[in-house]
Design goal:
Length: 205
């Protein structure tokens, strides 16, 4: 439904993945706006986004959406918010994330330093030597993901809660103004009960 009629060429899609057409600031604003307007309680939305963000700090590329959804279900978070949260892991942040979780995991298990890795690190080398790369990254990713969950959860919950409170106040003000605009008297000059006027407004699309 929301796909383009004419798919973008692979090269252009790759460029927009690295640098969105409207810029990262506009994309971040859109993500924040979309997140605030998701249906659900502030806890569910924040828990979902935090789950997606936390999974981004793990080395299991290709499984981030699935793992984020499973973690969100476990914590009773919003699944769509979890999918949005995975944007924390992107081509710009992955190099720093991977370097950090590898260094941390390597330190935790007492492994070799970065100088033991080949200069041209490839996926083939990673899968052929999982205990040299994937194991330290997984070990370092677990505490980092737990910390990231709380780092993203608290501010997002507060932001969504403030947005929803403000939105409810705006809705109440619109309802109050609409009730006043309906009028106190009908065409016959008979005053209608307030409950009848409220019911008439609620039935309006």
């Amino acid at each position: 439904m929301f796909r383009r009629r004419e798919p973008l060429p692979i090269l252009k899609r790759s460029v927009e993945l690295l640098w969105p057409k409207g810029g990262w600031r506009r994309s971040s604003t859109y993500v924040a706006h979309r997140l605030r307007r998701l249906p659900g309680t502030p806890y569910r939305i924040a828990a979902g986004f935090a789950s997606g963000a936390a999974i981004s700090f793990t080395p299991f590329i290709g499984l981030h959406f699935i793992l984020a959804a499973l973690l969100a279900l476990l914590l009773r978070g919003n699944l769509l918010a979890a999918a949005i949260g995975t944007v924390v892991g992107n081509p710009w942040t992955f190099p720093f994330i991977w370097l950090w979780i590898y260094s941390l995991g390597n330190w935790m298990i007492g492994g070799d330093d970065l100088t033991t890795l080949p200069q041209t690190l490839s996926f083939g080398y990673i899968f052929e030597n999982p205990f040299k790369v994937l194991l330290p990254m997984a070990v370092g990713g677990i505490p980092t993901a737990i910390l990231a969950w709380f780092v993203f959860f608290w501010p997002i919950q507060r932001t969504v809660d403030q947005y929803q409170r403000a939105r409810r106040r705006r809705i109440r003000r619109r309802i109050k103004r609409a009730q006043q605009a309906v009028g106190k008297f009908d065409t016959a000059g008979t005053r209608r009960p307030a409950s009848a006027r409220t019911t008439e407004y609620e039935r309006q699309p």
